[in-house]
Every structure is written in structure tokens, then in C-alpha cells.
Amino acid sequence: MPAPRKYDEETQARAVRMYADRLAEGDLSQLQARRDVGELLGINPSTLRNWIRRDLGEAATPPRDETLEAENARLRRENARLLRASEILKTAWHASGSRPPSPAPGSGAAARPTPGVPGWSALPDGRCRHRLGPSSAADTTR
To answer: Does this model's pTM top 0.90?
Structure first.
């Protein structure tokens, strides 16, 4: 159950009109106009900003145009497309025989062996070893 409304629709509309009038008068910034109207009516300027955005059609959360089922179907299609693209990239990477890209610095991702990725294994000290090929004896460590 949503929280009870503190301000009725008429008060909200009046506050938005007062804000528009203040801006039309001249030398005030948008923030200052919101502060002035908020001070006069006892309304937080952030709340007033939300009402103004709603009236201008710039609400923070856009209205839902699709049902939950339609959104799920869309997301499933997108997920399938991304999985196919990922498989294509993995295949190309394996065919090239190169090392996978290192994680971006500061991303928080550690360079660890990836289970299920052929060619990678862990050394006892936690480093990774990449086998260059099935018959290659040369290993590179990092």
C-alpha cells in the first residue's frame, strides 16, 4: 500500500504554477525559484522538482508501456542474443590461440583461472597458466 499523500493535486499544481511564474519574472535560477516557492509553501525543493519534472513529462521513472510478460519476453530475447554473441567471441578467441584479455585495472575482477575454459589451469601459488596448444610444452605464467 503506497504512503498517504501529504499534498493534494491542487497544491502540487499551484506550486508548479508559482515556480513557472518565478522563472518568468526574470533573474532567478531554477534552483533559486524552487527554493523560494518551497519556502513560501513549506515544500522541500526536491519534492517540487519532482512535481515539475512530472508535469514536463521528464519523470525519473518512465511510465510502463509494456506488461510484465512482454518485458520478460523482450529480456529473454536480448539474453539469448548476448549469449550467442558471447559464444561467437569465445570460439574466435579459442581459434586465434591468443590469451584472453586481462581485467581492467580497478574493476575489482581478479585474473583467476576460469572454470570450463580450455587452456587455463591454476598453479599451486594461485597464478594462472595458459597452455598455448594441446601439444605445446611451452607455458606462460602471469
So the answer is: no
